Amino acid sequence: MKKTTLTLLLMLIAFGAQAQLLWKISGNGLQKPSYIIGTYHLAPVSFTDSITGLKDALAASEQVYGEVVTADMMSPENLQKMQAAMMLPEGQTLDKLYTADEMVRINNALKSILGADMTTPMVAQQIGKLTPQALHTQLGLLIYMKKQHGFNPNDGFDAYFQKEATAKGKPVGGLETVDFQVNTLLKGIPMERQKELLLCLADNLEFNEEQTENVIKAFFAQDLDGIEQAMDAKLNNTCDGTPEEKEALIYGRNDNWMKQMPGIMKQKSTFFAVGVGHLPGERGILAQLKKAGYTVEGVK
To answer: 207-265: per-residue pLDDT in tens?
Structure first.
């Protein structure tokens, strides 16, 4: 998997050609079925109306689990942790991490995406102290917004499920803690690699914009194979991700979730909402559930 897809992974990884995001999990001793849906952080809540059987599956479930409890993530303490993880150490700025030539390449990308760059004092003040990974993520968001007009950050697709559960008085849980996500997704990439990946984005804007567009199309078509293919696109250079990076971001986390999910489902019928990138592949959640003895079928 190409590593510049990390932005898509933070917001979103063959199980057969399926146009399906919502799956029913049954058998293997479960008294009631559970469900799992692949989410894309930037998709609008209105897209839930396009997914067959979603409202019924959510209503039938006794609790909802996400990657993390959204309410915990939005607490002042955890917001402060996330903000701190996105900032460079005191006294450090992006222009001190890169050569003058590298800053020209980054500024060219900023001009293309933002219409301004860090030679503008206001821009430098706003983003000059971000880590390369944090800026990479922000630019990925802006690339998405260029492709999908009308984006509303308060209308998040994956937060919808926990909000609905809370409104109905149902328990909400998380497969990971906020601290784990901060340490893995924000702090887990060495600084030299962060620097390289930001340059990869800056030098390959057309590739990244096309990749984002392909992921968007595949997600709204509910095409897991298409999503995986789009995110696996490669440049065949050092911008491409390593097996170790994919292990940390996807497969290792899948394995940890699979240790928890059987007990959670046995306790109560559960609606799981996790990034769509975690569903496909031989070590994806869907395949692992089948290997564990569960019946996994698309909700029609």
So the answer is: 999 988 998 899 999 999 999 899 889 999 999 888 899 999 999 999 999 999 999 99
DSSP assignment letter at 283: T
Give the contacts of 83 (CB within 8 A, at least 6 positions apart): none
Structure tokens at 2: 């190409």
Q: Which portions of the chain are predicted below pLDDT 70?
A: 1-19, 149-151, 153
Sign of CA dihedral 194, 220, 114, 209: positive
Q: Where are the beta strands (DSSP E) in 214-288?
A: 270-275
How far apart CA 187 and CA 175 sit, in angstroms, is 19
- List Cβ neighbours of 283 (8 Å cut-off, separation of 6 or more): 250, 251, 254, 255
3-state SS assignment for residue 225: helix
User: For the residues of 93-145, what is the DSSP string, one character each?
Assistant: -HHHHS-HHHHHHHHHHHHHHHS--TTSHHHHHHHTTB-HHHHHHHHHHHHHH
Question: Is residue 45 packed enough to be buried (19+ CB in 10 Å), middle (13-18) or exposed (0-12)?
Answer: middle
Q: How far apart are the first and last CA of the chain?
A: 30
- CB of 110 closer than 8 Å to CB of 95: no
CA distance 5 to 24: 28
The alpha carbon of residue 2 and the mean position of all alpha carbons in its chain are separated, in whole angstroms, by: 15
pTM for the whole thing?
Answer: 0.90
